């Protein structure tokens, strides 16, 4: 770094303290953003920041003006020194990527480290719904139980799995389902047929996937392309015996349309880790259906994932401030302007890698 200029990184929280321990050894000024402090204190900090580890939507949801700490056009315009922003996990819907790209701000996520946790959770939903584990538990607790046959479930063996989004999570889910001998379909416009075939996956259009699948698993990120991807038409096309499962983001599916499909028998059940409003209100109609298994956006929250994500987060920030290409850069179009800004602030240009491929938005 140029003399007298130390990178300033602002964060709201780490998934594991190990991130802080790693960054303590680097020449980086790491400062915590207190979301409960007066807004002017937060802005004074943010306006001088070079990097921002973005607060999650869940963290700011209960604050009156919490949304201001997500990376939208207003924050981008106000924080002129900002060079890079990173999300805590694979999802990056808390960041306006286009606004950042226009301003020469690098946007990164942490896809990969938490994939195992989310993929296992998704498989857990499949087993729970097929075997009616939660449903049987509820019935047993209500008692007395007179007819076990009414709780008859099904098996995963030989069924068809449809994966929407073949990123890190989707790919790992495919691997976990291999012992069940399932036919695997996938919809992902960013993946080519050869890559899918290497994983034993058949690429299809979304219409075909929902019509043929016994389990529809949504593992894609929330983007302009995926917002509202699942609505009445998609649920109507599914088999009455099929299950809809999502560990993505709530806005990818229409909750009212899903509710209608569940209460009318259009589909057999749903496993939901995400909702439009998080945490969902207790009176959310979906939470009162016996054919719904729900968790409060915890699929990626495991001890192992938290540590892995924290390590990946810290090492990515090290790479950024050392002038190297971020390993999980989401907006390569920002790179030329980013390099100019970086040079203006720190006195040297980052790695001039030019062959930046646009990959599938990964979860």
UniProtKB/TrEMBL annotation:
Keyword Nucleotide-binding: no
A GO term, aspect molecular function: oxidoreductase activity, acting on the CH-OH group of donors, NAD or NADP as acceptor
Database matches in InterPro entries: D-2-hydroxyacid_DH, D-isomer_2_OHA_DH_cat_dom, D-isomer_DH_CS1, D-isomer_DH_NAD-bd, NAD(P)-bd_dom_sf
All copies of domain D-isomer specific 2-hydroxyacid dehydrogenase catalytic, residue ranges: 74-331
Gene3D superfamilies recorded: NAD(P)-binding Rossmann-like Domain
CDD domains: PGDH_4
Keywords associated with the record: Amino-acid biosynthesis, NAD, Oxidoreductase
Domain D-isomer specific 2-hydroxyacid dehydrogenase NAD-binding: 123-299
GO biological process, one term: amino acid biosynthetic process
Superkingdom of this protein's organism: Bacteria
Family, as annotated: Belongs to the D-isomer specific 2-hydroxyacid dehydrogenase family.
Descriptive protein name: 3-phosphoglycerate dehydrogenase
Species in which this protein is naturally found: Mycobacterium kyorinense
Lineage of origin: Bacteria, Bacillati, Actinomycetota, Actinomycetes, Mycobacteriales
């Amino acid at each position: 770094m140029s003399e007298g200029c130390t990178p300033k990184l602002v964060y709201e929280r780490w998934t594991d303290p190990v991130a802080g321990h790693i960054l303590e050894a680097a020449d980086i000024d790491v400062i915590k953003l207190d979301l409960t402090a007066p807004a002017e204190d937060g802005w004074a900090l943010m306006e001088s920041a070079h990097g921002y580890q973005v607060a999650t939507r869940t963290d700011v949801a209960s604050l009156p003006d919490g949304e201001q700490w997500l990376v939208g056009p207003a924050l981008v315009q106000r924080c002129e020194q900002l060079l890079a922003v990173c999300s805590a996990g694979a999802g990056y819907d808390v960041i306006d990527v286009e606004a950042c790209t226009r301003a020469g701000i690098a946007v990164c996520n942490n896809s990969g480290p938490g994939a195992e946790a989310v993929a296992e959770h998704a498989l857990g939903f499949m087993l729970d719904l097929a075997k009616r584990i939660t449903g049987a538990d509820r019935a047993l607790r209500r008692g007395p139980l007179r007819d076990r046959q009414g709780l008859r479930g099904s098996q995963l063996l030989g069924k068809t799995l449809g994966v929407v989004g073949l990123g890190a999570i989707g790919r790992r889910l495919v691997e976990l389902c291999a012992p069940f001998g399932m036919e695997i379909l996938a919809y992902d416009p960013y993946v080519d047929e050869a890559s899918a075939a290497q994983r034993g996956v058949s690429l299809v259009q979304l219409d075909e996937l929902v019509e043929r699948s016994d389990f529809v698993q949504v593992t894609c990120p929330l983007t302009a392309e995926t917002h509202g991807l699942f609505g009445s038409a998609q649920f109507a096309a599914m088999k009455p015996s099929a299950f809809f499962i999502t560990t993505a983001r709530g806005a990818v599916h229409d909750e009212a349309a899903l509710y209608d499909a569940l209460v009318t028998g259009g589909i057999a059940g749903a496993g939901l880790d995400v909702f439009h409003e998080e945490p969902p209100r207790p009176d959310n109609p979906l939470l009162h259906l016996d054919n719904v298994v729900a968790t409060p956006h915890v699929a990626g929250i495991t001890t192992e994932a938290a540590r892995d994500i924290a390590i990946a987060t810290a090492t990515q920030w090290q790479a950024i401030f050392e002038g190297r290409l971020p390993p999980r850069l989401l907006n390569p179009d920002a790179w030329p302007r980013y390099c100019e800004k970086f040079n203006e602030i720190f006195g040297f240009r980052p790695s001039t890698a030019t062959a930046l491929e646009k990959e599938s938005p990964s979860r």
